[in-house]
Each structure stands twice: as C-alpha cells, then as structure tokens.
# Entry
Amino acid sequence: MTDRMYRLLELQQKLDAAIKRTRAKRLVDPVEVARLEKRKRRLRDRLARLFAFPPHLAAGL
# Structure
C-alpha cells in the first residue's frame, strides 16, 4: 500500500468519525451531514480506483 493510499484511508476514517459526531449533536444539520457523506463517497470511489489499479502497476503502461 502506498503512502497516498494510507493517507486517503486515514481521511476516510476521519470523515466517518465527523459524520458520527455531527449526527450525535442535539440539533443535527442535514446539509452538513449530506456534505460530509458526499465527500466520503467521492473519497471511497477514489480509493476503489487506486486499489483496483495501483500506481506502481500503472507506471509500466
């Protein structure tokens, strides 16, 4: 796993924690939750592409 993949996985965990914290608030802001979830989905898609086609294999193409 590359350093970039590791950083993106860490960011995904942080976003997940932020979503949980936001939902646990007394007054939940649905716009904030939607924004965080959208960001997490984009990150998940990016990670899926990286894991499906790792950069060290792509260099030879």
Observations:
- Residues 12 and 40 are 6 Å apart (CA to CA).
- The mean pLDDT is 90.
- Helices lie at 3-24, 30-52, 55-58.
- The chain is about 80% helix and 0% strand.
